[in-house]
Structure formats: structure tokens, C-alpha cells
Amino acid sequence: MADDKIYFFHEENSFKIQGKKEIRQWLQKSAINEGKKIEQLNIILCDDSYLLKINIEFLKHNYFTDIITFDNSDSRDNIKGDIFISIERARENSIDFNQDLNQEVKRLMIHGLLHLIGYSDKLKEQKLEMTRKENYYLQNFI
């Protein structure tokens, strides 16, 4: 399984991801379990202001968020995309949910991947399904 198609970048923060190789393998296995293959996945860890600029420019939303995902896929079977994660929002989430920061960042990674796979969280039922999937992959694949 080629896990060199998943790249990590830092913008305006110094957060260090622990266990990059294991995270790459986990994300690949999760995608495969959903019948998809990761062609290229960029995970960009940034601060609130960086993600706010993206939110305003591309989505026309003027508010902070913890994650933004852009799907660049050419086919339904192969995943190609960008996942932007605000470390500041992740830190706040980890406090609010009494969760380790590294675990919260992983939750956001799998959340973004699930969006790229095709899951939505706009409706209450969709949000419940997304959370169930996040929990499943966090408990069983990592």
C-alpha cells in the first residue's frame, strides 16, 4: 500500500504531527474500507486566521471553522483533495470535549477524508452518521 500520496504541510503554526507513517496507513486503510483509493491527499495544518481567509475567499463564509475540505478528484473511486485544519480550533475542541489534542486532530483528518469519500454533515442524520464513522475509524483502524 503506497502511503506516500499523503502529504502534511504547516501554515502559520508549529504543531507537530506524531506518527505520520501510521496516520498515512490509517487514512489509506480507511479509504479502502469505503471502497476508495487515495490518489493524493494534502493535509494542511494552519491557524485560525489562515483558515478564515480561505473560508472567506473560497466559501464566502466570514467565521472561524475547524476544517475545510476541497475535493479535487477526477473520478468517484480515487480521492484527491486538500484538508485544511485549524490547530487553534482543534485545541479548543479538545478542551471542550475533554480529548487529547492529537486525537482531535486525527478526528478532523478522518472527518475531512469522509467528506472526500462523499459523506455530508449538513443534516442532523448525516451528522450522526459522520460521527459514527469517525468513531469507527478512530477505534478500529488506528
Structural account:
The chain is an alpha/beta fold and 142 residues long. The protein contains five helices and four strands, in the order E-H-E-H-E-E-H-H-H. It has helices spanning 20-33, 48-59, 87-96, 101-117, 124-140; strands at 6-11, 37-46, 67-71, 78-86. Strands 1-2-4-3 form a four-stranded mixed β-sheet, sandwiched between helices. Helix 3 packs across helix 4 (101-117) and helix 4 packs across helix 5.
Give a brief rundown of this model.
The protein is of the alpha/beta class and 142 residues long. The protein has helices spanning 20-33, 48-59, 87-96, 101-117, 124-140, and strands at residues 6-11, 37-46, 67-71, 78-86.
Q: Based on the structure, what is the oligomeric state of the protein chains?
A: single chain
Which structural class is indicated by helix and strand composition?
alpha/beta
Q: Strand percentage, roughly?
A: 15-25%
Summarize the amount of helix as a percent range: 40-55%
**Distinct helical segment count:** 5
Largest sheet, if any? 4 strands, mixed
Which regions contain 5 or more consecutive residues with pLDDT less than 50? none
Please state how the strands of the largest beta sheet are arranged side by side.
1-2-4-3
CA-CA gap between termini: 16 Å
Give, in order, the helices and strands: EHEHEEHHH
Mean pLDDT score? 94
Radius of gyration: 14 Å
Number of beta strands: 4
What's the shape?
Answer: globular
